Amino acid sequence: MTAIAMAEQERRQTVTVLFIDIVGFTSLVDQLDCAVVRALQRDYFSIVSEVVRDGGGVVEKYVGDAVMAVFGTGKTGFGPEVAAAAVRVGLSVQEALRGQLLAGRFAVRTRVGLATGDVIVDLVATRDFGHGMISGSVVSTAARLQAYAPHNTVVVCATTQTATGDSIAYQELPPVRVAGKPYPLDLWRALPPHRFPAAVPQLCGAAAA
């Protein structure tokens, strides 16, 4: 492929990446028939994807119980309002799942992590329902943040917090050291509207997949 063709297919862009997963998913599904697991996933993915789309994001992939979504890949580019929309989607997804019984039987808890940074956007993949559409270290950062989030919370990186601090309230959490990162990651917990900071929840160690 020529350099011109690559330039037409790919674009460097700042985005916000969101990861969400179900707490204790592996131990839950180990005891379930595969048809029940599929019904649980179908309900879960349906709720998450609807909230993501309504908030202006694109679902990039589903992996087991994890959903990765991207905000800011459109032609209008990235701005604080894009990052704020992504954070609000994280909060809205948890609110939508609260009280829901997936597959008619299972109430679940989730963790959400968001990170903002530069990626290469594959424009063809973006049009092809999002799968494999972005590349960049911000993806692994968002995944790590999600893995270390307290249960039923939304945590963001420092870049996301700086971009959205005027419109979303945050509670600073203790930094965490994670494998593969030479420095601790700062964590900020996004607070639902009209909620004041409370005691800091105990952080998870490694994520229970």
TrEMBL record:
Molecular functions per Gene Ontology: adenylate cyclase activity
Annotated SMART domains: CYCc
Per its UniProt record, what Gene3D superfamilies does this chain match? Nucleotide cyclase (3.30.70.1230)
Q: Name one Pfam family in it.
A: Guanylate_cyc
Superkingdom of the organism of origin: Bacteria
Which segments constitute the Guanylate cyclase domain?
16-146
Kindly list the biological process annotations in GO that this record carries.
Answer: cyclic nucleotide biosynthetic process; intracellular signal transduction
By sequence similarity, the record places it as follows: Belongs to the adenylyl cyclase class-3 family.
Q: What is this protein called?
A: Guanylate cyclase domain-containing protein
- Species this chain originates from: Paractinoplanes rishiriensis
